[in-house]
Amino acid sequence: MTIDRVDLRSDTVTKPCSAMMHAMQNADVGDDVYGEDPTVIELQRYLSEMTGHEAGLFFPSGVQSNLVALLTYLGRGDEYIVGQNAHTYKYEGGGAAALGGIQPQPIEEGSDGVMDLNKVEATIKLDDIHFAKTKLLALENTTGGRVVSLEYMKSAQALCLKHGLQFHLDGARIFNAAVALEKEVGELTGMFDSVSVCLSKGLGAPIGSVLVGSSDFIERAKRWRKTVGGGMRQSGILAAAGLYAIQNNVQRLKDDHDLMAYLVEGLSQFSDIIIQDDQVHTNMIFFDLHSKKYDELLEYGKACGVLFGGRQPVRMVTHKDLTKDHIDLALDRLSGFFS
Ligand SMILES: *Cc1c(COP(=O)(O)O)cnc(C)c1O
């Protein structure tokens, strides 16, 4: 097959493979609003067990899964602490504030992508009628493609225990972190009160996220999922894709990371690109240009069939529907811009 387009915009562009489609077609289904879809039940059980939690809940999207976690823990006038660039805060339409009256307290991340925990602690409000009630700390892993260390997450957990905060992880790409760290995913997720995991990123399912936590939390979350319109019926068709993804596509995330390393090596020949390869841990790179010709590069890429995201910085993401041939072609075409 000849390649005419290289899509490096996101790992969300992956399409279900034929084995995944087969699993979807053959899924045993029921009405999940009545709790009767065996495939959804199995996906929730499988993922909660794997991540070290009592129960799970299937959602159509990661945005809804994070939103419902916040709505379940927090009420009007409550506050959660979150990174300034975190998806939950910056890329989810302000949902917690818009729909839940929940105040975010964003904190700027350092160059390592995480919030300074001293700053987090200093931001926790005193019990005083002037202040919102600080009730939760939200982390993200991976964040901007970077892996958050186990040590950092343990320190953050200790802080939450000390101050009685709930501890939520936006683990949209937590399997990328687990593969990069060569750890079982449960080691990275068991310490949180709740975790949201995406099935539709590098894992390659067409749709879906799972929220995991205690049985009591998940029971309460189920109400909120219904309230925001996330109750689905024969969703086992979708859960089957998620199960297939979890059972077959986790270890292969390493291929995406290796392909990213190959891309970074190729990009480093272009002197205009400011490469910080210590920031590339998984399947994403963000880079600036000395020339600042961001719009021109984006347009050039589009015109020659090399798609990527971001304006400044530029963002490129590898995924299961790309091979070295795609990367070679992308580098070859982009060399026309940089020469
Ligand atoms: C993709 C993503 C989500 C969920 O977004 P959806 O578009 O709903 O899938 C949440 N957090 C992070 C960090 C993500 O990358």
**Globular, elongated, flat, extended or rod-shaped: what is the shape?**
globular
Radius of gyration: 21 Å
Number of strands: 12
Distance between the termini: 29 Å
Low-confidence stretches: none
Mean pLDDT: 97
Give the amount of beta strand, in percent.
15-25%
List its salient traits.
alpha/beta, 7-stranded mixed sheet, binds pyridoxal-5'-phosphate, 17% strand, globular, 12 strands, single chain, 42% helix, 339 residues, 14 helices, 3-stranded antiparallel sheet
Q: Topology of this structure?
A:
Elements: E1 6-7, H1 18-25, H2 38-51, E2 55-59, H3 62-73, E3 78-83, H4 87-90, H5 95-100, E4 103-107, H6 117-123, E5 133-140, H7 150-163, E6 166-171, H8 174-181, H9 185-189, E7 194-198, E8 209-213, H10 215-227, H11 236-248, H12 253-267, E9 273-274, E10 284-289, H13 294-303, E11 306-307, E12 314-317, H14 324-338
Parallel strand pairs: 1-11, 3-4, 3-5, 5-6, 6-7
Antiparallel strand pairs: 2-8, 7-8, 9-10, 10-12
Bound molecules: pyridoxal-5'-phosphate (PLP).
Explain what this protein looks like in three dimensions.
This protein has 339 residues and is an alpha/beta fold. It is 42% helix and 17% strand. It has a 7-stranded mixed beta sheet with strand order 2-8-7-6-5-3-4, with helices on both faces. A 3-stranded antiparallel beta sheet has the order 9-10-12, with helices on one face. The chain has a two-stranded parallel ribbon with strand order 1-11. Helix 1 (18-25) crosses helix 11 and helix 2 (38-51) packs parallel to helix 11. The longest helix has 15 residues, at 253-267. Residues 61-63, 66, 87, 140, 170, 172, 198, 200-201 line the site of pyridoxal-5'-phosphate.
